Amino acid sequence: MSLTTLLARSISRPTSATHGVAISPVLAKIDKQHILIWTARHYILVEALNETRLGESINNFPGAREILVEVGDLTIPERAEILYNHAKLASLPAAARGIIKARFRSIIQHPNFTPERIRQLCDDVLRQEKTPTWALVNRFMTNPTQRWRKAYNNLSRSEQLLLTTMLDCEEDAPLKTIQLAYEQRAQHERDRCLPFRPVLARLEHSFLQVSRTFAGMVTADFRHPSLRDMLLEELRDDPKARSRYISLTTPVGIAALIRGQAATKQA
Amino acid sequence: MFPNHNISTQSPEEFALLIQRIRNLSTAVMTASEWRSILTAAETLLPRRDGKRRSPVELDLSSLNQQPRMQLFDAVLRAFAHEDTYKHNRRYSPNDWTPILESFADLSLYLLPPPILSYGPALCTLAIKEAPTLSAIHLANALGRIDPRVLRQRIRHQDLENWRDAIVEALRESIGTGEHLKADGDATPDDYDDWRSHTRAVLRIAGDFYEWAHLDPPEELRDLDRLLSTVQRPQAPEEEEPDIPTTADERDPEYWTLERIFEDL
Question: Do A258 and B239 touch (CB under 8 A)?
């Protein structure tokens, strides 16, 4: 069975129940001749294709849109399975389970349904809430970035600055690189900012995740790409912040801005 | 419709600010991978058809160069070509310079007039001063794609002789490995893949070198080319076909109603 067929069979229907098992034969097929580029964001795929020039060096290499798996393109039973599994794994209180049992059809048919959003609904909303209500669930499903935004607005200026700095860096950037970019931005702040390490410690586990590579390098990245999307929305809505961002961003950020211009042109 | 995961300028002032930031890149200390990232981003500004970049000969470059986005493209290439870029990044090795020079050579064809790499002679000297290796020759090849006159001005007969010897040695070594792979029944697909990708790189570097140096290619070049098409990739051991588990909608649809799924929650 070819890698492409395996991939099509195992990830075109990524239900949470079968996903982990189904992907393992795909991973076993990966070698020097077969590379798997798997990402939660379209722009990352496009960047990877541009960077590697795979599309230009292989004649019939499929275009980005041909190898996309739309997470919204799930059948109703698959969506139900995803919701059930996340709800079960989150060990929700009785009240929250009651809401899901009574309203599962509205949740799984919601236009904003994605597997990650359902995970957030179960882990971050229903499990944390002492008195969960349907109105709360509905509000979250209708405006999923609102919670991120609310949490972001409650952060100190230094914490917000570090998150903006993350836009200046590659994904999983070394801590040293992030620190340098943070300190560069902090120099231009009107008020004195906190040192890098304590700010990082405050954001770790909530907004950021810190990891160690096989080579021992410590890196950091957003806990979820939707947080990056929320920060971009903030910049899109605030001309002053945007100008400031353009003035102070790193070469990585400048490259992202150039790609942004190209994407605007294509749209 | 995909959500916009990028940020772009939204006013002429912001656009001008971005242009200014790009122009100032020549005075910044940057890593080679940052330059590569900037050049890759600039490439996305070029017209495409069916996802592939259109070649400069297919385009009306005069009208393309009038388009606002090409101001960004122009600013990137001119910043890269500026002498300050070399001054601030002298620490790059030939292996750092070569891929970004190749990218520059490729992209500069879209600008009218094409920008001049002001530090081409300095890089040519760097290639000559390096030990005669494939890396040094590869750097000279890349420079030759930008301005062959620089090579003709700087590279002496003795340098060419040294580089020719280095290439012949690399070709012979690759022939030796290829013949060993052909005869060795224990070779793995990975051994073959390593040899093939190395051989293709050697052939490409050698081919480019003999072309600009106007030298007769040695027998070894043809031999290696022939060997590349005759050595077979060893077969990997057969693996068992994995069973892919079925998903909910492939199971008994009569039994698995939605209500039943949530029954024991």
Answer: no
C-alpha distance from residue B233 to each of A30, B175, B176, B181, B223 (Å): 17, 16, 16, 9, 18
How far is the C-alpha of B61 from the C-alpha of B71, rounded, in Å?
13
Residues of chain B found within 8 Å of residue A64, distances taken between Cβ atoms? 51
Contact A255 B41 (CB under 8 A): yes
Is B235 an 8 Å CB contact of chain A? no
Give the residue on A whose Cα is nearest the Cα of B2: A42
* Domain regions of chain B by residue span: 10-117
CB A167 within 8 A of CB A232: yes
pLDDT digits (tens, 9 = 90+) for A234-245: 898 899 999 999
**Cβ proximity of B172 and B220 under 8 Å:** yes
To which residue do tokens 């929700």 refer?
A92
Contact B6 A263 (CB under 8 A): yes
Burial status of residue B37 (CB atoms within 10 A of its CB: 0-12, 13-18, 19 or more): buried
pLDDT digits (tens, 9 = 90+) for A202-223: 999 888 999 998 888 999 999 8
CB atoms B262 and A55 under 8 Å: no
Which value does ipTM take for this structure?
0.85
B218 in helix, strand or coil? coil
Interface probe for A, chosen from B1, B5, B19 (most Cβ of A below 10 Å), is B5
Reported confidence tier of residue B137, pLDDT bands at 50, 70, 90 = very high
- A251-266 helix and A42-52 helix, angle to the nearest 10 degrees: 110
Q: Is A51 in contact with B9 (Cβ distance < 8 A)?
A: no
pTM higher than 0.80 for the full model?
no
Say which DSSP state B35 is in.
H
